[in-house]
């Protein structure tokens, strides 16, 4: 392979217009093969690890709704973004140390002329293992502007299990 093979155009003598294609780009089968590979790469790039058959999750894939989890000494706070939903569309459950967020987003319109949509519709379920005991009677869930915030206060036993470890230099 020479350096000229790496250049996407070739220099021709005379009054010819420089070619922007290498010789193998003129082959229709190689060109078709390259385009089909690019098509599959583009299609499957959008799926990521959210393929239901691979990850075992349902709904919109493994990452919907998106959540943010903060863990302080006294409580765990789970914030989930669920735009386009209302309070009645979401169910929050706690069972065996696992917080479950589930619900359904329905399409507002039955538009038969719709050609393309990136909006999510359907059922979702997101399970979040907590890993500590929480005071089940004091759990607080609030919903405002498409954001669900669940505050789970830790039990005294869980709070006392936190041990600070000194870092030595």
Helix content: 10-25%
Mean pLDDT: 75
Biggest sheet overview: 4 strands, antiparallel
Tally of alpha and pi helices: 3
**SS elements, strand count:** 7
For the record, the count of structural domains works out to 2
CATH class of the largest domain: Mainly Beta
Proportion of strand residues: 25-35%
Determine the N-to-C terminus distance: 55 Å
Write out key terms for the chains shown.
single chain; 169 residues; alpha+beta; Immunoglobulin-like; 2 domains; 4-stranded antiparallel beta sheet; 3-stranded antiparallel beta sheet; 3 helices; 7 strands
Question: Could you characterize the architecture of this molecule?
Answer:
- This protein has 169 residues and is an alpha+beta fold.
- The chain folds into two domains: 3-45, no CATH class; 60-107 and 121-160, Immunoglobulin-like.
- Helices cover 16% and strands 28% of the residues.
- The protein has a four-stranded antiparallel sheet, with no helix packed on it. It has a three-stranded antiparallel sheet with strand order 3-4-5, with no helix packed on it.
- Strand 1 and strand 2 (75-81) form a beta hairpin.
- The longest helix has 18 residues, at 28-45.
- The radius of gyration is 27 Å and the shape is flat.
- It starts with 27 loop residues before the first helix and ends in a 9-residue tail after the last helix.
């Amino acid at each position: 392979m020479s350096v000229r093979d790496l250049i996407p155009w070739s220099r021709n003598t005379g009054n010819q217009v420089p070619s922007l294609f290498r010789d193998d780009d003129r082959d229709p089968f190689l060109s078709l093969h390259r385009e089909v590979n690019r098509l599959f790469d583009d299609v499957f790039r959008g799926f990521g690890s959210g393929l239901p058959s691979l990850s075992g999750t349902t709904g919109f894939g493994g990452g919907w709704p998106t959540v943010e989890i903060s863990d302080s000494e006294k409580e765990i706070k789970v914030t989930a973004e669920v735009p386009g939903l209302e309070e009645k569309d979401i169910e929050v459950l706690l069972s065996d140390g696992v917080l479950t967020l589930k619900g359904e987003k329905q399409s507002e319109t039955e538009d038969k002329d719709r050609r393309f949509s990136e909006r999510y519709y359907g059922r979702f379920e997101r399970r979040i293992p907590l890993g500590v005991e929480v005071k089940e009677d004091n759990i607080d869930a609030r919903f405002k502007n498409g954001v669900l915030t669940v505050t789970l206060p830790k039990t005294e036993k869980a709070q006392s299990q936190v041990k600070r470890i000194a870092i030595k230099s």
